[in-house]
Records
---
Amino acid sequence: MQSPEIVETAVGGVADEVLGEAVRAFGALRRDATLVSEHVEHTNAHRPPYAVSKMVIVLPSMPRQASEKLDLLALKRWGAAAS
């Protein structure tokens, strides 16, 4: 499901004491957007249980490296800090 409110998304694993690694979803929304829980529910309904993110982290924008690539280490730090 695509929504005009969602600018960009990413999903990654972060360290988890119980599972070893847990799924974290990250999203950047339009400035005037409101995150509606049905976006998350719809996405999770179409995934196997092990791939469902228990937490969605909304960022003002996705972190980028100098090369404009997505900064995965920064996302991992955000995910770990939010745990």
Note: The chain has one domain: 6-81.
---
Amino acid sequence: MCFESSVAIFTGDFSLYMSYRSYQIGVEINSALRRRQTHEFGHFIESPEKYIAAELPKESVKKDPEFEIGDNEVYGEYFNPILMEGGTYILYIGYVSRFNETVSTNQYVACELKL
């Protein structure tokens, strides 16, 4: 669920997600001016059009499921940059699992955010 500048992460029944260790918040600029389609999320510095803004441990999400997009802070190893006024963004939430040094992420579109 989107609010003015934040997204609520629906955790549902945590017993269903026991193998997941954290959540990732992905941000994609929704613009007709976007020149290339990127299929993978990256760090903001490498992929400013489609990036991971945060990785949050599931325990912290369970305590506070609301996350502010664009607060200019670092979460995990990801930078959550300030959003452009007047911009339109597509927000994604992913469940992250790590097993034997392999990272697996299942993502879904959470909402569209217009500033």
Note: The chain has one helix and eight strands.
